[in-house]
Amino acid sequence: MCRIYNTKDSNSFGPKSFFNTYPLHSLIILYVSLVIIFSRMLSLAESSNPNFLSFDDFVWCVIITMGTIGYGDYFPGSYLGRVIAFSAAISGIIWASLLILTLSQYLTMTSKESKSHITLKRLELRKLLEKYAEEAVAETSKLGNEGALKNVKIKS
What we know:
This protein is mainly alpha-helical. The chain has helices spanning 13-21, 23-45, 55-66, 79-107, 111-142.
């Protein structure tokens, strides 16, 4: 396929195609992969840290660090562990940016969708205006002969 469209066949073509086809699935897979990788790296770097009792503690630490929340209940003590936590935080910021970008693309209307939306709003406003006009005419007709708009007819 790449030869037909004269594009370079590289290792990044597959992941790019998957991300463009399934952006939310890709982000979920990326997030879970990053959490598992950073948790394992942190568990290897902090194996002697008494603060971490199980692998779940490492996973929790990485999730909180990637979300840049940092409760402080679990934290690395070694320099290597801190570098891994810092890398997890940067990765979390990049992941959150990708998530926001993906969601904004889902919520952005195309020009045809925007025109349809504006047309629907105009129709709603027209119906509302007609309703108010009918009410105004009804109120005026109740006034009897004194009403200034007694003989006015509404075009539809």
